[in-house]
Design a protein that fits this description.
Length: about 300
Amino acid sequence: MWNALKQQDGAVLFDELQDLGFETLELSRHLTPDQVEQLKPYLRENPPCSIHNFCPILPGTSQTEAEPDKISLSSLNTDERLEAVRRTVQTMELAVELEVPIVVLHLGKVDTYDRSYLMRDLYNYGEREFEAFDQKVTEATEWRKRKETRHQDAVLRSLDELNESALKMELCIAIENRPHYYQIPNFDEVGLFFEEFYGSPMRYWHDIGHAALQEKLGVCWADRWLEQYAEYLVGVNLHDLQGLEAYHPPGTGDLEWDELFEQIPSEVLKVLEIRPCEAEPVIEARDLCFNFTLRVNDVG
């Protein structure tokens, strides 16, 4: 994510990250097919730790359009949903080719009117603690509930197919918490999906910044996700928030990293997911996370 848009040569992209001191990479959903092909000779010797679906970007999609998804595993349109499943399986096949153990899934969204801007405006005006803020959060989540059941059913159908493929491929698929209240899964849906697919190769992928953003906007307390779903946790994305702006290097924003690191099990995969920026804060973020890991291992 850090340099996929600014460096179109996959070989140079890989060298830049190695020069920063990283030995293992995650493949982001911003990579083009050409970049993936250029990376393959290097990745066969240095297998990625994880890969985000969809990778590479979908045909007809530019790198800057990788978010949001053009097709969705939660779509009520059967053809679109099945195409999303097919493209996900292609990402899983790439993971098998490159010996990537984990494929991180974005499950889609509930098709409801997005009221996030109301919560953001109130937050930015300093009204986070007032009744009007809570009222807007309640209104938004209630509107979501009216439409979420059909989308949950669509996701269950998609996950049924993907879990079957993951089992055959001996892969782990991991569902990720998302930043917006209308996206899937919300806090309760994680439990719903694991209850439905208990014993499957599916796991939970926790994004620190997404959870913190939901807390800032009054949707869900950030620490609940890790407390409730620890038994399924396989990896975490690490990035900081500056106000409501995500994907900054850890240590450059609002989050309390000493407290956050205490909540993260030492054995799970930790991935820095950082927007394009200068190299120095990325190196400092790497050292911050690495030094915490050393402290935990020393205590253990």
